[in-house]
């Protein structure tokens, strides 16, 4: 494209932007991205399925009826039953609640730690920055899956009760992921700090805490949103891998990962694919959907991409 | 260059110390040890205590850390309790099995990603590009263990195209060519999964990189010279797009030698990742700790390698 | 008079954008003669670069497309050539240099490699012969120690040197036409003069025609034999250079000439044409300059003026001021 034509189209864009708020512009860009919209629909569907679906299920998780065990999918049990005669569809929906929750909460933890440390490092610079970034270096070099597995094993050894395990998991997964976000936020803050509006806050004599949380961090929200979205997918994948290995969420609490571990039994693996394929597909769909949304958001929120 | 490398190597030391403390602290949190994990109900308490003192497990944690870290500095990673061999020997025994699938997967994923990345950038917004974009997202989102299981079920169990797991058919005393074919068959599926897993993000990377380069002025210059489109893309654009990508090659280092834990477990591949998972289950601390440190070192060396490769590839940096 | 080398006939190059069609080049016709330097002048966005890129057929498609007209090169319509035939002309008989010498050379290939490329492709030289010729070319564009430069990378050279290298590349196959798209805009003033001198020199030595695109009337005065003024995708005036400077017809051209600072002459304030270039999307069928024109009449707002000569044959313009017809309306 010749340089001569570009400036005019750019002018037009700035005109359009002056009318819309940045968020509206972002919304419009996002909705124009077909894949992102599909991802969004997929994730809404997943949430409805998992959080509202069970209310309409004629079955009950405690319906142990051995005469109904290991049924293939049929009219009553749409996805079949397991070895205790429980409805797979219902378990899968309930498992989804756990998996989605772990992903979301873990990400919240990641964002809280990452954004705070990143902002503090970027704002104070010098020694504080150096210290935080050194620690970040250490965490970056830690092999994350092995550490997760070791921690999972620790949970088992500490005989943590299955029902409280998911909280530990959320924290573990959340804490181990903070570095990426911290680096992103720090980079943003470093550039923001030099801008004029920060000199204004200096002149107003605001407290550091207020400067960081009221003036600097809100400006990094687009970056945080994108990174956080993508990290939900990562957290869900980590949780499912651990649960599959039997050291994440453990039965009787269902999670997509531990449902797939039915495949560890050769007969179930081979003859009863309804036990493990549907939850696997759920993980796949959810994580594809989140990645699509994350990518759409990146394009929509990044002022550098022109569309 | 030499000075730069030495400086970077020195900078790794504090990071490694931090890592070793964290890893050791985590392992020390675990109640019980190798002896309790393997405890034979018949083993008397005295016997257990005796074993503990032989292994040095009776000392307080911080003392054990210094003993362990001190040995590590001397290059002594300790002995694996489970394998009754030095940790380094165990790693050396199994790491090459991991390397086999790692290097093939690396080769295939780079090859596929380059080709698809280039073409989907060249034909941006075409049907091909859209399909590639979707596939990229799927590959990036794959839960490795699930996709491994699916492939085993369909290709190995149902269609019987490939063996279900392992590296060689048991009882087969093949040599030479026959052995090679046997390993090839066994490794096909794990390589395929590993390839799928890394191709997604790589393709995306190459595509973005190519898109960026194609818009540059020097590509217009190349076209204005009357060069064939093939030359423009593969000589002028590709070389520039490859420079940032070369950095990624460094980051592949831990993947090559670190083994793919869950996948190796699923495919019963006798790689170092599989052994490592076992060591966690067996509470074989010397191996567990030693190998985790090994992985961390690979990551750090990989980062360094990435920077060095970048310097070699880019003439703008090379001369400084 | 010299033979016609290139003739644009009613060229139409459009860009599709989400907001509508941009007629970047709208019914443009003019002729470049052998051994002549023709300058296309206009503000950025007026379509002068797109005209040149259309000639090279390097319009990015989509969004751009040549939708009509002909571009005759030695009597042959370039738009009818296949891609392969066109790439034989590009860089060989017609070559081009660009505005940004800093980014127009490939940063990972040596200068030598980049100069040798067209030599090996179009002149079918082998590597050794190409190197010999490349070193001659580097010498020709006035760079000393050509052997050393041959093995250098672009980042080791200054902006002026790089533009010289670009010229060397463009001249490598003895082109009949050299297109220079704002070749000096990105350079320091002293370097600008050197590059222009070099181009003039080369034109005399090799008798190459030059299509020079610029917004700088100073450059026009120094280089041009013939001038084409473009505004909003249309040619609004063309004339031999002296004629244009002495007797500009179109109010826009007059404005441009007034806007140029004149050295040794005290001016209160530099004149600038009021208003802005119109939004190029879906322009109406009128004089696109009407809202900035101090002589604007009713007809200017509704009807396009014809482009023709008013008096001298070689001097054409498109303005109702010189038409009789306006009285009728």
Report on the structure:
The complex is a heterotrimer of chains A (307), B (320) and C (329). Chain A is mostly helical and 307 residues long. Chain A has a single domain, classed as MetI-like fold, CATH 1.10.3720. Chain A is 71% helix and 0% strand. Chain A has 14 helices and no strands. Chain A has helices at 6-19, 22-32, 34-51, 88-124, 126-141, 144-157, 162-176, 178-193, 196-204, 208-216, 221-244, 256-260, 266-271, 277-301. By secondary structure, chain B is mostly helical. Chain B has a domain at 91-287: MetI-like fold (Orthogonal Bundle). Chain B has helices spanning 2-29, 34-37, 45-55, 61-73, 87-122, 127-141, 144-158, 176-214, 217-224, 229-251, 253-258, 261-266, 272-282, 285-313, 315-318; strands at residues 79-80, 85-86. In chain B, α1 (2-29) packs antiparallel against α14. The mean pLDDT of chain B is 83. The model of chain C has no long low-confidence stretch (mean pLDDT 83). In chain C, 32% of the residues lie in helices and 23% in strands. Chain C is globular, with a radius of gyration of 21 Å. Chain C has eleven helices and twelve strands. Chain C folds into two domains: 4-93 and 175-273, P-loop containing nucleotide triphosphate hydrolases (Rossmann fold, 3-Layer(aba) Sandwich), CATH 3.40.50; 102-172, no CATH class. In chain C, the strands form two sheets. Chain C has an eight-stranded mixed β-sheet with strand order 6-7-8-3-9-10-12-11, sandwiched between helices. In chain C, strands 2-1-4-5 form a four-stranded antiparallel β-sheet. With 329 residues, chain C is an alpha/beta fold. Chain C has helices at 48-56, 83-89, 111-122, 127-140, 146-150, 159-171, 189-206, 217-223, 241-246, 251-259, 298-302, and strands spanning 4-17, 20-33, 37-41, 64-73, 76-77, 94-97, 177-181, 209-214, 226-231, 234-240, 308-309, 316-317. The chains are: A mainly alpha (307), B mainly alpha (320), C alpha/beta (329). Chains in contact: A-B, A-C, B-C.
Topology of this structure?
The complex is a heterotrimer of chains A (307), B (320) and C (329).
Chain A: H1 6-19, H2 22-32, H3 34-51, H4 88-124, H5 126-141, H6 144-157, H7 162-176, H8 178-193, H9 196-204, H10 208-216, H11 221-244, H12 256-260, H13 266-271, H14 277-301
Helix pairs in contact in A: 2-14, 3-4, 3-14, 4-5, 4-7, 4-8, 4-11, 5-8, 6-7, 8-11, 11-14
Chain B: H1 2-29, H2 34-37, H3 45-55, H4 61-73, E1 79-80, E2 85-86, H5 87-122, H6 127-141, H7 144-158, H8 176-214, H9 217-224, H10 229-251, H11 253-258, H12 261-266, H13 272-282, H14 285-313, H15 315-318
Antiparallel strand pairs in B: 1-2
Chain C: E1 4-17, E2 20-33, E3 37-41, H1 48-56, E4 64-73, E5 76-77, H2 83-89, E6 94-97, H3 111-122, H4 127-140, H5 146-150, H6 159-171, E7 177-181, H7 189-206, E8 209-214, H8 217-223, E9 226-231, E10 234-240, H9 241-246, H10 251-259, H11 298-302, E11 308-309, E12 316-317
Parallel strand pairs in C: 3-8, 3-9, 6-7, 7-8
Antiparallel strand pairs in C: 1-2, 1-4, 4-5, 9-10, 10-12, 11-12
Helix pairs in contact in C: 3-4, 3-6, 4-6, 6-7
Keywords (chain A): Cell membrane, Membrane, Transmembrane, Transmembrane helix, Transport
Family (chain A): Belongs to the binding-protein-dependent transport system permease family.
Protein name (chain A): Peptide ABC transporter permease
């Amino acid at each position: 494209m010749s340089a001569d034509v570009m400036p005019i189209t750019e002018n037009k864009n700035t005109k359009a932007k002056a009318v819309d708020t940045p968020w509206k512009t972002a919304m419009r860009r996002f909705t124009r991205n077909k894949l992102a919209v599909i991802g969004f629909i997929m994730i809404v569907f997943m949430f409805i399925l998992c959080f509202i679906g069970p209310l309409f299920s004629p079955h009950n998780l405690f319906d142990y009826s051995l005469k109904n065990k290991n049924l293939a999918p049929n009219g009553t049990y749409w996805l079949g039953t397991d070895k205790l005669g429980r409805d797979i569809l219902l378990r899968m929906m309930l498992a989804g609640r756990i998996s989605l929750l772990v992903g979301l909460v873990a990400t919240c933890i990641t964002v809280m730690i990452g954004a705070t440390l990143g902002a503090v490092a970027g704002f104070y610079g010098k020694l504080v920055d150096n210290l935080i970034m050194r620690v970040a270096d250490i965490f970056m070099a830690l092999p994350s899956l092995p550490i997760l597995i070791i921690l999972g094993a620790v949970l088992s050894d500490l005989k943590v009760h299955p029902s409280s395990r998911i909280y530990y998991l959320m924290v573990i997964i959340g804490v181990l992921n903070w570095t990426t976000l911290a680096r992103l936020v720090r980079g943003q803050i470093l550039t923001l700090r030099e801008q004029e509006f920060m000199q204004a806050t200096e002149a107003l004599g605001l407290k550091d805490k207020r400067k960081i949380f009221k003036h600097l961090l809100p400006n990094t929200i687009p970056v945080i949103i994108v990174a956080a979205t993508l990290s939900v997918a990562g957290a869900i994948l980590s949780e499912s891998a651990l649960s599959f290995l039997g050291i994440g969420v453990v039965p009787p609490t269902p999670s997509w990962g531990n449902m797939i571990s039915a495949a560890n039994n050769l007969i179930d693996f081979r003859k009863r694919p309804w036990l493990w394929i549907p939850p696997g597909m759920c993980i796949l769909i959810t994580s594809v959907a989140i990645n699509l949304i994350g990518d759409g958001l990146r394009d929509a929120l990044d002022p550098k991409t022109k569309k | 260059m030499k000075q730069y490398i030495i400086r970077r190597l020195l900078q790794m030391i504090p990071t490694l110390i931090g890592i070793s403390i964290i890893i050791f602290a985590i392992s020390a949190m675990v109640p019980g040890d190798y002896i309790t994990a393997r405890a034979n109900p018949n083993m008397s308490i005295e016997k257990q205590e005796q074993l503990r003192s032989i292994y040095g497990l009776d000392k307080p944690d911080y003392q054990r850390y210094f003993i362990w870290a001190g040995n590590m500095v001397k290059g002594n990673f300790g002995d694996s309790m489970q394998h009754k061999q030095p940790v380094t020997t165990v790693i050396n025994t199994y790491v090459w099995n991991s390397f086999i699938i790692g290097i093939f997967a690396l080769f295939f994923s780079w090859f596929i990603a380059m080709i698809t990345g280039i073409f989907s950038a060249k034909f941006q917004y075409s049907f091909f590009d859209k399909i590639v974009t979707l596939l990229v997202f799927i590959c990036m989102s794959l839960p490795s263990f699930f996709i491994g299981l699916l492939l085993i079920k369909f290709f190995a169990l149902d269609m019987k195209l490939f063996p279900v797991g392992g590296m060689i058919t048991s009882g087969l005393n093949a040599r030479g060519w026959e052995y090679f074919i046997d390993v090839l068959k066994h490794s096909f599926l794990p390589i395929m999964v590993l390839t799928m897993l890394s191709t997604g993000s790589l393709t995306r990377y190459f595509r973005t990189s190519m898109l960026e380069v194609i818009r540059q002025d020097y590509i217009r210059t190349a076209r204005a010279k009357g060069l064939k489109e093939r030359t423009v893309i593969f000589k002028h654009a590709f070389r520039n797009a490859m420079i940032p990508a070369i950095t990624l090659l460094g980051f592949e280092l831990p993947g090559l030698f670190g083994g793919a834990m869950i996948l190796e477990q699923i495919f019963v591949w006798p790689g170092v990742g599989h052994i490592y998972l076992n060591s966690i289950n067996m509470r074989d601390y010397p191996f567990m700790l030693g190998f985790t440190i090994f992985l961390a070192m690979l990551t750090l060396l990989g980062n360094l390698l990435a920077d060095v490769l970048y310097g070699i590839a880019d003439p703008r940096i090379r001369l400084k | 008079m010299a033979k016609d080398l290139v003739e644009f006939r009613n060229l139409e190059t459009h860009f599709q954008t989400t907001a509508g069609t941009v007629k970047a080049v709208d019914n443009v016709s003019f002729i470049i003669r052998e051994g002549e330097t023709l300058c296309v002048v206009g503000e950025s966005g007026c379509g002068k670069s797109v005209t040149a890129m259309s000639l090279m057929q390097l319009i990015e498609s989509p969004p751009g497309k040549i939708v009509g007209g002909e571009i005759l090169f030695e009597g042959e319509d370039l738009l009818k050539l296949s891609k392969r035939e066109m790439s034989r002309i590009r860089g060989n008989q017609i070559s081009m240099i660009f505005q940004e010498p800093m980014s127009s050379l490939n940063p990972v290939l040596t200068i030598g490699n980049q100069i040798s490329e067209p030599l090996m492709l179009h002149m079918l030289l082998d590597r050794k012969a190409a190197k010999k010729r490349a070193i001659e070319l580097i010498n020709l564009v006035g760079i000393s120690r050509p052997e050393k430069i041959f093995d250098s990378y672009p980042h080791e050279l200054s902006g002026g040197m790089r533009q010289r290298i670009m010229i060397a590349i463009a001249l490598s196959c003895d082109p009949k036409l050299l297109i220079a798209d704002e070749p000096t805009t990105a350079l320091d003033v002293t370097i600008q003069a050197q590059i222009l001198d070099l181009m003039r020199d080369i034109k005399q030595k090799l008798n190459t025609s030059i299509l020079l695109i610029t917004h700088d009337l100073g450059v026009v005065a120094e280089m041009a034999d013939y001038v084409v003024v473009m505004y909003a995708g249309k040619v609004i005036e063309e004339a031999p250079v002296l004629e244009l400077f002495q007797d500009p017809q179109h109010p826009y051209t007059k404005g441009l000439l007034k806007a140029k600072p004149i050295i040794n002459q005290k001016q209160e304030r530099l004149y600038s044409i009021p208003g802005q270039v119109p939004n190029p999307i879906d322009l109406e069928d009128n004089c696109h300059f009407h809202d900035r024109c101090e002589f604007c009449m009713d007809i200017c707002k509704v009807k396009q003026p014809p482009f023709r000569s008013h008096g001298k044959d070689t001097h054409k313009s498109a303005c109702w001021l010189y038409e009789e017809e306006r009285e009728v309306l």
